[in-house]
Amino acid sequence: MNAIYAKPLNILLGVTGGIAAYKTAELVRLLIKQGHRVQVVMTEAATHFITPTTLQALSGQPVFIDSWDQRIANGMPHIELSRQADAILVAPASADFMAKLAHGFANDLLSTLCLARECPLLVAPAMNRQMWENAATQRNVQQLRQDGVTVLGPDSGEQACGEVGQGRMLEPDHLLEALTRFFTPKLLAGKNILITAGATMEMLDPVRGITNLSSGKMGFALAQAATRMGATVTLVYGHHQVTPPEVSQACFAGSAGEMYQTVMQHIANQDVFIAVAAVADYRPQQISEQKLKKSESTLTLALIKNKDILADIASLPNPPYCVGFAAESEQILEHARQKRLAKRIPMIVANHANSAMGSDHNTVTIIDDQAETPLQADEKINIAFEILCHLHARLDPH
């Protein structure tokens, strides 16, 4: 279970009539995989696009459609089902259904549930681009937002009708991320955080370079978790093996020099700097303009030292709160302690390079002036959340 949730959520998933309903099956699967309980309620129109049997099989719960369903003992499914939910998510939400919500109609089970709810309501619009752009739809969307309903999307792209434009329902993984972000405590709201991630590449010639095994996963997890926690995140990333998360601003920097320059360009007004990127300590003294040919049994390279990004940021006249990472292969804690003192930073996170690089899991120890705090092995996204909670406690001790 994702540590960002204190407990599994009870999600009431509403499905309305639209071709995007086929994506709902994958959304249910992802929600169940994350440990949530999913109760599906469909409109009659939705059953023309996907069957209740499919969603029942995926959710493991009976699917409800009729306001007069006798499976609810007291004959009030709109009350019973809504009271059991931590949130109602309608995906897809058709133009017709959003019009119902905006005007308070309650002429089927799902609309009645939404009207009788005591929990948050989120909707994921899905419709033809002209329907989305229609003035009536835009008025309804504005009304829903004013009423406190969270509108997720829509996305832009190719539609089932063959047209291209805004109106596509967000993909299931994006909806899951939006739901996760909605329920994550906003402990870092108002904070500006710059994070570096990934590996740098120091080129030898046009086709070869010196790099390392960093995948970018830990830095990306921290950027994703910080965004979920309400921070404004600037991500400066190098070479990586996974897709970067959505953040406020993202910049690619392939070499140590490029990363140094990019960080320096964005460091002003940052509250926190987290240096996770595996930046090369050295670079070739000369870069060949042509591919180096095999000619001798040995090849000697002259390397020169790169600038230390973290140390230089920490030595600024008014530096942000600096957090370093120490990926070591031996004497991990001892080397991390020395690194923290040498760079004059308040916090460092120590881990074992051999097991952490490229893995989805990590085991770390947070070292600062007050304590050394080991964290149990876990997925990197959960480790990231724990690190940021620790950081929050240091930034705001009250």
TrEMBL record:
InterPro entries named among the record's database cross-references: CoaB-like_sf, CoaBC, DNA/pantothenate-metab_flavo_C, Flavin_trans-like, Flavoprotein
Domain named Flavoprotein: residues: 10-177
EC number: 4.1.1.36, 6.3.2.5
Origin: domain of life: Bacteria
Active-site residue numbers: C161
Binding-site positions, CTP: D281, K291, F325, K339, K343
MF terms (GO), sorted A to Z: phosphopantothenate--cysteine ligase activity; phosphopantothenoylcysteine decarboxylase activity
Start and end residues of each DNA/pantothenate metabolism flavoprotein C-terminal domain: 188-391
Tagged with keyword Magnesium: yes
Magnesium recorded as keyword: yes
Alphabetical list of NCBIfam families matching this protein: coaBC_dfp
Family that this chain belongs to: In the N-terminal section; belongs to the HFCD (homo-oligomeric flavin containing Cys decarboxylase) superfamily.
Name assigned to this protein: Coenzyme A biosynthesis bifunctional protein CoaBC
